[in-house]
Design brief:
It is built from 13 helices and 10 strands. With 375 residues, it is an alpha/beta fold. The protein is globular and about 55 Å long.
């Protein structure tokens, strides 16, 4: 399963029923998301850890919330562990190899290698769904533009990256503002990924950060137009629910047209100076199949904002090490690239396959201690 629930035991449906019955707050009804006094951050982390433990004991990766929302247990576990880099990395990460538990060295190494090629890096982690909709888990005190952040450790990690010269984009303030403005939700209720609107808000923030740079000098810009349609998705979390399942979630997906009446303008061009690299958040609503739709999602939204196609290299799984291994396998030395926008779920910090050091191009395979690691 792409970026969602995987490796469930045969009895997972019975197990999920057990989770639904045992999870505190699972019976919240609409308009009653609060379950007791609001805890502080450590109390909230402890509550999340308890809910994850209940789900894992039942062999499920699904944690139900209020009002039809469903959450992914590994993502909640990431929020529960707190600080996850430096000395604490090996203790909280589920990476198979302890030496690859800390994301900080791998990100710094990737940034340095790109800089040697005169290519910029913009690191854009996708916030946890629960960090933007904590009220759907009975934690309303962490919702809203001025509220404390449930993902405080993620924010602190971005500060640590910036202090060492990595350009980062914290999407949480943008998402909080967008949620406060109303409109379509930023995350799928029944899937692990952001919604088309969430992808569009992220694209706007990325384009705003890249505005005024010389990446597109000599490139022709196009006046593109959005073309929208509604689809009913089979979310990866929805598919893990027992029968009878609730109705499928309906979302509005936007693609591109070069002019009114001429849909299907490609959002992707291998020759683009902008490379979108990452996990299935780069591919959802773009790659089709279990990712719901084609021609939409972040690539289309960013191409619309930039008035120019982007290059895309996404993986259906971990966007940490495998995405960089696939970049190496391309074998083109990132010819023509000016910036890599690295987009991946924050759960990759602690719940993925680990953070190996990977050469950016084959020309750097023998440089220093770098080499191909886990794939």
């Amino acid at each position: 399963m792409t970026g969602g629930v995987a490796h469930r035991p045969p009895g997972r449906l019975v197990a999920l029923l057990t989770v639904t019955l045992l999870w505190p707050g699972a019976a919240c009804s609409e308009g009653s998301e609060t379950a007791g006094p609001e805890p502080g951050l450590e109390g909230a982390r402890a509550a999340l850890a308890q809910r994850v433990a209940t789900a894992e004991a039942a062999g499920s990766g699904v944690v139900p919330g209020a009002d039809g929302w469903i959450f992914f247990a590994p993502e909640l576990r990431h929020l529960a562990v707190g600080r996850f880099w430096g000395e604490r990395a090996a203790a909280v990460s589920r990476a198979p190899r302890s030496e690859q538990a800390d994301p900080l060295p791998a990100i710094l190494d990737f940034q340095r290698q790109l800089a040697e090629l005169e290519i910029d890096l913009l690191f854009v982690p996708v916030p946890a769904k629960a960090a933007l909709y904590p009220d759907r888990l009975g934690l309303p005190g962490f919702a809203g533009e001025g509220a404390p952040r449930l993902d405080e450790a993620d924010r602190e990690f971005l500060v640590a990256l910036e202090a060492q010269g990595v350009e980062v984009l914290d999407l949480v303030p943008h998402f909080r503002t967008a949620r406060a403005a109303g409109g379509e939700e930023l995350y799928c209720r029944q899937d692990t990924h952001w919604s088309p609107r969430g992808a569009a808000v992220a694209a706007g923030a990325i384009a705003e950060r890249l505005a005024g740079r010389s990446y597109f000098d000599g490139h022709t810009r196009r006046a593109l137009h959005p073309v929208s349609r509604e689809i009913a998705i089979e979310g990866d979390l929805w598919r893990e629910m027992p029968e009878p399942r609730p109705p499928r979630e309906v979302l509005r997906v936007t693609g591109l047209a070069a002019a009114a009446g001429h849909p299907g303008y490609p959002a992707v061009d291998r020759a683009s100076p902008v490379l979108l690299l990452g996990d299935s958040h780069v591919l959802v609503f773009h790659a089709g199949g279990e990712l719901h739709a084609t021609g939409g999602g972040l690539p289309a939204a960013l191409a619309l904002e930039l008035a120019h196609p982007v290059d895309v290299l996404g993986v259906r799984g971990s966007g940490a090490t495998p995405s960089r291994v696939n970049l190496l396998r391309r074998g083109d030395g990132l010819a023509g690239k000016r910036v890599v926008v690295w987009v991946l779920s924050v759960r990759e910090y602690t719940q993925g396959q680990g953070w190996g050091l990977v050469p950016v191009t084959r020309l750097t395979v023998g440089a220093g201690a770098r080499g191909r690691t886990n794939e």
